[in-house]
Amino acid sequence: MTVRYITPLLVFSAIVTLLFTNTAVSGVYVIPSFILGLIFWNISEYSFHRFWFHEKRYPRKLKKYLSNGHVFHHRYPDNTDELRLPMSLTIPFSLLYAGGYYLLFGITNLGFFYSGIIGGMFFYEFMHYAAHHLKLKNRFFRYMRGYHMKHHHKNIKSNFMVSNPLLDYLFKSSS
Fold it and tell me: What does the CA dihedral 26, 30, 36, 38 come to, rounded to 10 degrees?
């Protein structure tokens, strides 16, 4: 495992630990807070991939920042250099979501909300790596691998989700 995979794990683990040690907990809302974090992650996964990484209408400098790695990933899908999410996007946006949660709901269960975001992100990272480099026998993993490969090899304007197809089905962007 290279530094590029260990660093995000350490950074996010430290943030989640800090949040948990400084967060009030209300047992009734622990699971809903975690699920809300997962929902925010899934919306982010879909939105970034569909509207940021594949959008053609951004100013050139912004486009270069947003999608250079993604363009490289599409040209060389088996290369692991641009397989993971850029930390320059994930950390600020996940902290922005945590700040929004804090403003709406206070400190109670913030760690669980943030853990939902991070859990979703790491599941995405695993699924994306597995889709490109592993031959898992589980039915769901095989389905998602094929689903993601359609995005790469048949139609880059569909199948934006990597961790699950739900939002693609909902927004009719699956093929």
Answer: 150
